[in-house]
Amino acid sequence: MADFNFNNLGDGLRTIFLAGVGAVAASAEKSQQIVDELVKKGELTVEQGKVLNSELTRKAQGAAKGAFAGATDAASKARDAVDDVKDAALKARLSVMSEEERAEYVARVAKIAETVNAEKAAAADAAAAKGADEDAAAAATDVPADAPAEGETPAAGGAEAKAE
């Protein structure tokens, strides 16, 4: 069976989408140049040029939206196909196992899932703690430089007030 890297599938779809957007942008720029040339030659009035350019821009934006929708749909179909292949491969693997081997495999997968869940929870906790630490640090730095320290009372008149 040929090796196929499904991880690069999204990159290919992204490249296709970006090429479509680039083509739309290039055609919009070219249409603007053509309109500008026709206005310079006097074949179009400035007002007609503006109307024509806005119509072309609207059509280009519609084409870009269509290209994005098409790329999104293709990516969704590709993910579905990848999931189908993964499911078929898993089913094939499980079908050659004995009932005992399948039970061991299920237990191993459950243990891996627990580990992943614990790692994600720990990462979320660490991110929350980091955010709380950053909030506390930001609150501590919000004190004005000339404010008295905790427990001190402000002196009226500065150093002269202390000398009296």
Structure notes:
By secondary structure, this protein is mostly helical. The chain is elongated, with a radius of gyration of 33 Å. It has helices spanning 9-41, 46-95, 99-140, 159-163. Helix 1 runs antiparallel to helix 2 (46-95). The chain has a domain at 98-131.
List its salient traits.
Phasin family protein, single chain, mainly alpha, 4 helices, PhaF_PhaI, 0% strand, 164 residues
Q: Main beta sheet, described?
A: none
Measured as a percent range, the helix fraction is over 70%
From the N-terminal CA to the C-terminal CA, the straight-line distance is: 94 Å
- What's the total count of β strands? 0
Radius of gyration: 33 Å
Order of secondary-structure elements: HHHH
The structural class is mainly alpha
SS field, number of helical segments: 4
Pfam families: Phasin
Organism: Bifidobacterium callimiconis
Biased composition (Low complexity): 137-164
Protein name: Phasin family protein
What is the gist of this entry?
Residues 137-164 have a biased composition (Low complexity). The chain is mainly α and 164 residues long.
